[in-house]
Amino acid sequence: MLITEMLAENARIYGDEIALIELEPAKEKRTEITWRMFDALANRICDALIKAGIKKGDTVVHLMKNCLEWLPIYFGILRTGALAVPLNFRFDPDSVRRCVDIAEAKAFFFGTDFIQHANSVKNNSKGLENFIFLGPGEMKPDFAICYEDFVALGEGIGPQIDINLFDSACLYFTSGTTGKPKAVLLTHRNLEFACYVEQNHHQQTHSDNFLCIPPLYHTGAKMHWFGNLMVGAKAVILKGVKPQWILKAISDEKVTIVWLLVPWAMDILFALENWDINLLDYDLGSWRLMHIGAQPVPPSLVQEWKKVFPNHQYDTNYGLTECTGPGCVHLGMENIHKVGAIGLPGLDWESRIIDSDLNEVQRGEVGELAVKGPGVMKEYFRDPEATEEVMKEGWLLTGDMARKDEDGFIWLVDRKKDVIIMGGENLFPVEIESFLQSHPQVQDVAVIGLPNERLGEIPVAVVQVKKGQELTNEAINEYCGSLPRYKRPRKVIFAEVPRNETGKIEKPKLRKQYGGSQEGC
Question: Model pTM?
Answer without folding.
Answer: 0.85
